[in-house]
Fold these 2 entries.
Entry 1:
Amino acid sequence: MTEPETKSPARVAILTVDDDPGVSRAVARDLRRRYGKDYRIVRAESGRQALEALNELKLRGDQVAVLLADHRMPEMDGVQFLEKAIDIYPNARRVLLTAYADTDAAINAINVVDLDYYLLKPWDPAEEKFYPIIDTQLEEWRHTDHRAVSQSKMIGHRWSARSSEVRDFLARNQVPYVSYMNDDPEGQRLLAAAGVNDSKLPVVITADGDVLVEPTDSELAEKVGLSTSPAEDFYDIVVIGAGPAGLGAAVYGASEGLRTVLVERIATGGQAGQSSRIENYLGFPDGVSGAQLTERARRQALKFGAELITTRDVVAVEVNGSARTVRFADGGTIDAHTVVLATGVSYRQLTAPGLDELAGRGVFYGSALSEAPGCAGQDVYIVGGANSAGQAAMYFSRYARTVTMLVRGPSLEASMSSYLIKQIATVETIKVRTTTEIVCGHGVDHLEGLTLRDNKSGDEEKVETGLLFVFIGAAPRTDWLDGATVRDQRGFVVAGPDLVVDGQRPTGWPLDRDPYHLETSIPGVFVAGDVRADSVKRVASAVGEGAMAVTLVHRYLEKR
Ligand SMILES: Cc1cc2nc3c(=O)[nH]c(=O)nc-3n(C[C@H](O)[C@H](O)[C@H](O)COP(=O)(O)OP(=O)(O)OC[C@H]3O[C@@H](n4cnc5c(N)ncnc54)[C@H](O)[C@@H]3O)c2cc1C
């Protein structure tokens, strides 16, 4: 028997299924207490009943936002139920209720039914352990488009660096897509339908039916509807780099009435967009995925009227009288009163022999979150001991058979937040190998193994793996600013009081005032976020500096 627990006229349901009537009632009671006003709470006591209820809801044209299923149920367990429920409500968020002992089953369910969350029993107090999870799921559901989404299709080669880049580009730019390998029957069918063969991959078939063979990023951007050219001739601010600092500057600039354009080389979000879970950003006690946070910031910037241009690589900033000219790699330019440099940092490459040639073919720099499904059942290696590596280990452990972290130092304590160290310790499939380095990589057309050295004992060992994710020290890529702005020895951009040495302003500084706080050695050109010398490498500080740069832009514009 299923039981609609509330007479609410709302047409969106949350369904809970548990074979234990006591637990089932308790879950429904908690759900009703918080969500009963806005959602219809539907309760079932078996998978079969729950499926019947879903079919009824479907017939009535109702929507279902969240499915909450107990794992241990006789006849049909929670995962089996969710698997069937996908066919009826593919967009409903799927949450599995499990006992601690069933964590493995829950982790497997992530692959089988693309589980959104597994909730451990008991969930008391609900305010702390239950509602934040359901709130997040409801919010995620509200942000999905419940109509059929038109998707691009990408057909690529399993071991092609460019196929992996294109997948990453589409994912990071939030373009809905499905990816097929060239040896999948569906991939072959699509290639045949598009009238192309698999000698030149990747092939992208856009939602509008355009066929792109080995597209460049800018070709892709144009065809999938991302803007690549400025709409105006002149702006108040050009922000270079759409990570948290650039997005912060764009939101504050545009919301304060400045004509603002944000220029990005690859995809909105920067490093933060690649973070699987940011747990220390103010206001998100339950954590937030970097993609979600930065996608919201992108929408916020656009809402205030900022313009966003992607796939344009900035290669120079020049002074033209009172204007600042930003030059692109393809020769185009934008002029503005001011510039905010927010170009962040990129991971350093590993220098061990054999790895360079396998980049994108098993060796990835940064999270490459779009590779996660390919990790299913694999033994994955991660290099690095900082938070980014720890987050990646947690994330990939949901997919991989084992995750091994290779850490050069003697422990994680010096480099990683303690909350993350604790989380890692609870996952049996994550191993941490300290004082360990990679000697070389093996593989012909893709990574097949690594030789590791224990720096304490000097012992070397060869391990088999096809996936290595690298998170080692980051460097700013600012060579293009050579001769334009003052940078420190490592390439970070120096700003504000740090430019005044022994009372001397930087060479060529034309004004009779010192540079403002985030101002570089070019008046009117500001710097924010990770690329600034001595900056704090955090999302919050990057956003804060983006906002602060805009205040200084106002001051600069007023006092010119
Ligand atoms: C995996 C991972 C996890 C992390 N987790 C956390 C966390 O939990 N908490 C936390 O506080 N911090 C975290 N960080 C750090 C945080 O993401 C960074 O401090 C933050 O993103 C810095 O923001 P930014 O805007 O200065 O630079 P970035 O995020 O690096 O963005 C810079 C942007 O500029 C673009 N760009 C660069 N050069 C050019 C050019 N010449 N032309 C056009 N565009 C250009 C880049 O493509 C990039 O999109 C994490 C970082 C990583 C990689």
Note: Residues 398 and 470 are 18 Å apart (CA to CA).
Entry 2:
Amino acid sequence: MASGSGSWPFAVRPLTPHLGAEILGVDVAGEMPEDRFRAIYRAFLRYQVLLFAPRDLPPARQVAFGRRFGELQIHVMNQYHADGHPELYRLSNLDQHGRPSGRHPDRGTLAWHTDGSWQRVTGQATIIYGEVMPERGGETHFCDMYGAYDRLDSAWKARIANLRAVHNLDFSRNRRHGEEPLTDTQRQARPPVDHPVVRTHPETGRKCLYLGDHAQSIVGMPYEEGRALIEQLNHLAVHPGLTYEHRWTPGQLLVWDNRCVMHRATAFEVATQPRVVRRCTVLGEVPT
Ligand SMILES: [Fe+2]
């Protein structure tokens, strides 16, 4: 298990009393010795969300930094691939003239979720670089899912201890009005999978709630009953004492641990305000 505040070879500024930290004086675009990266990784396990100061981060350097964490996902929705790097996924509301198009690039990001939960091997870190940010809105919010589990009373914990949820990308995309559906090929490439509702983080050993917007139903439970349970738990999870709300400055980099946080983006004025981010997701493991 990661140590507490520990001693760090860089300055660490916590973003809330227990979730998130800004790492100061580290150049993620440059060459990074292994011991420096190990310390960043330790901070990642300890704080769950890491923030790095604004800097120019070329796409190739973002991919290189991501690879330090592990294997990078090549996203099934290839319409988002960016800059000739299939590991990067760009979300932009700009049209071909660079003007706000009025269309949100992915309304699914507005609901609390955890990246890659619709895959058998789920997301470990997500690494997002903010290229262009709106004056208002377009924030990223985080919720600590260790805390969400810890807050449940013993009756809740007993009730969900051995449940598994079906996660389905086709479900979470299609139920949002106006969202572009998956193609048949994309759908066949990503059939629904099931994961434990309470997962144990493979590196810290701590239990956390693992649901979010891709969770469709509960294995062995009537559909409507499972839906109600998922909605209730997703709602219970998000508590003011467990969240960090990030207001972006362009050029910042955010890294978070999908195994123990949920996140969402807030709305912005898509017809008048620009917002462009590029992200990569590191593949983790099969949840247990
Ligand atoms: Fe996401």
Note: The helical segments are 34-47, 59-69, 145-151, 154-160, 169-174, 184-189, 223-237.
